Amino acid sequence: MSTCNICEARHMAPAYVSPENVSITSLTEIRSGRTEVFACAHCGHLQTTPLPDLDAYYDEQYRILIDSEDEDQLYKIVDGEKIFRVRHQVDTLLGKIDFPHGASVLDFGCAKGASARQLASCRPDLKLHLFDVSRMYLPFWQKFSEPDRWGTHDVPAHWHGKFDTVFSMYVAEHVAAPVAFARQIASLLKPGGTLYWLIPDVAANPADFIVADHVNHFSEHSLAVLMEKAGLKLRLIDSRSHEAGLIAIADTRTTQSNFRPSSSLARWQSDVRGIASLWSGLGSRIRQFETQRPANEPSAIYGSGFYGTYIASCLSSLNNVRCFVDRNPFRQGKSLLGKPIIDPRELDDSIRTVYVGLNPLTARQSIGDVDVWRDRDLKLCILNDNESAIHSAA
Ligand SMILES: [Zn+2]
Predict the structure, then answer these.
(1) What backbone phi and psi angles, to 5 degrees, belong to 164?
(2) CA of 215 to the centre of ligand 1 (A)
(3) pLDDT at residue 391 above 80?
(4) Which protein residues have a CB closer than 5 Å to ligand 1 (ion)?
(5) pLDDT grade for 389, boundaries at 50, 70 and 90
């Protein structure tokens, strides 16, 4: 695990090893074993030691959002209106790619196909195809697509050179061999075709750094090397259209790449050291806050996603945690680690301590937006990205 997945430089240095012997996946499963992240000095790529049996994991265990057709992640709340992830992803894709009428388009690594389905409803003229490395999503695909437009495990031979656009949303970070993955996508494009990736931006959401099943954490530099190796020309990297996401758009070699990274490799490496430092100290600071609270005082964890699960994994005991709180209606009514997930309005009056499991870069603002808690006397444990790392606010 000391060779870079992208530029093949050897002897990558460890950038981070989790202090505790636990790792958390993107689906908020807590597993035993430490998370190790390595950094490439040449291209800035960060990579995490893959989970054992990665292929079987995605084939059989990685069950993302499959409780219902409409189940989705909450992307953002703007003026009280909930915006869900798939809708935002497709709106952004349509804003970035000028699909010709009747274009052949492939959603590569589509899971239940929610993005393709949404895209089809906006652009019924497109010839949309679906691919994933599992058959567990077929019941969803059958509701809006035909078998001659989908593939599982092996890409159909007649798909080579077929597509105007191949898009992959939150896929490349999971694959163990990203260069081979990009080459495969390149082989499916027509001359003049376009690749569109949406991947996590570790600089905007530090959780990506320690997610156990995210093998790759791309830098702008490593993305540029990757596309070159895949025989593609990187057109742009957009870090603004998605909060905590990077869009990479690349074309087949009929055009010239004039891409330049927005910052130096040294600056990136400095940012990475900051993220590693954040995670190295956070667990002990959460426990410090915990010990300062009165014994047996009931508490709640705000956020039932990665950060909330991380906090739960750090606490000395979950005995005092009564519930998780989440504004996503698809999460409410479920449970996590044996605790119910509730709407903020349902928080019992007896609970006065809340651990805020949100992105440290935006946690303070997000928790301030919870109107129904404004007049409550809550002691908040906020993960913070500054030196104190945890800020408690009354
Ligand atoms: Zn490298």
Answers:
(1) -75, -40
(2) 14
(3) no
(4) 4, 6-7, 9, 40, 42-43, 45
(5) very low
